[in-house]
Specification:
The protein is α+β, with helices and mostly antiparallel strands. It has one domain (5-81). Helix content is 29%, strand content 41%. The protein has one helix at 58-81, and strands spanning 11-15, 18-27, 30-43, 46-50. It has a four-stranded antiparallel beta sheet, covered by helices on one side. Strand 3 (30-43) and strand 4 form a beta hairpin. It is elongated, with a radius of gyration of 15 Å. The relative contact order is 0.19. The mean pLDDT is 92.
């Protein structure tokens, strides 16, 4: 993926090996947000990402997703206030 601001997440929330990224897309109707979630793991010497989660990861994933939701909500509220 190219290293430009257009292709970078606007927010990263990470708890250990669980990572949630918030992406912002500018539209005619204002900013829209998308969220992706991955689990990091080590394969030999290399770090990799997967969309699969272990059962023990689920409470952590839920917290990270909740934090992403709260952050997006706060951004929308700030935009409405300005």
């Amino acid at each position: 993926m190219p290293n430009s601001d257009k292709n970078r997440p606007i927010r990263e929330i990470r708890y250990g090996t669980v990572k949630v990224l918030v992406w912002e897309n500018k539209t005619a109707n204002g900013a829209m947000h998308n969220v992706t979630a991955v689990r990091l793991y080590k394969d030999g010497e290399d770090w990799k990402e997967t969309g699969g989660f272990h059962a023990d990861d689920l409470p952590i994933l839920a917290k990270a997703l909740n934090d992403a939701h709260s952050w997006i909500h706060d951004q929308r509220a700030a935009r409405k206030a300005s």
